[in-house]
Amino acid sequence: MKAAEAEKQAKFDRLMAQFEQELAARDAAIWRFRLPPPFSPEVAAALHQWEQVRARAAAEEQRQKVEQQKQARAAAAEERRKARAAAEEQRQKAEARRAALLERAEAKGPDSSSIDTDTSSSGGSSSSSSGNHTHGSSGGVCGV
């Protein structure tokens, strides 16, 4: 097992040395304003393979990022749905309480009603006989 790893490492070291040598030759050519020589087939194949590995890693990283964003959006949507459901439940409870209060008020009769209703028989007078609201005049005083 160690022999295989040592052989693999030696091959990598040779390839890297060749790459550095060819890169130096390319740099020298560029500094002399000449076209750089192409990489050898071995170095070109290794560079291509490394680029593919890097591209796959970048694609996987992007896929994971998109997946995380998708999960975050789904979690946020679920939270909004729960908040809407809770608000609807609270609204229904409040409506049920109002209905129960109205039923109790109607059961007690109109004289002992705790709910302000405008049932004045005078037909549009400036103040209601049973409420704290004003009707018909802009100069009326509330709460009289």
Could you explain the architecture of this structure?
With 144 residues, the chain is an all-alpha fold. It has a domain at 13-107. It has helices at 2-31, 41-108. The longest helix has 68 residues, at 41-108. Residues 120-133 have low confidence and may be disordered. Residues 60-144 are annotated as: Disordered. Residues 111-136 have a biased composition (Low complexity). Residues 60-109 have a biased composition (Basic and acidic residues).
Average predicted confidence as pLDDT: 82
Radius of gyration: 42 Å
Tell me the number of helical segments per DSSP (H or I, 4 or more residues long): 2
What class would the helix/strand composition place it in?
mainly alpha
Strand content: under 5%
Helix content: 55-70%
The assembly state of the depicted protein chains is single chain
Q: How far from one another are the termini?
A: 101 Å
Order of helices and strands: HH
Shape: rod-shaped
How many β strands by DSSP? 0
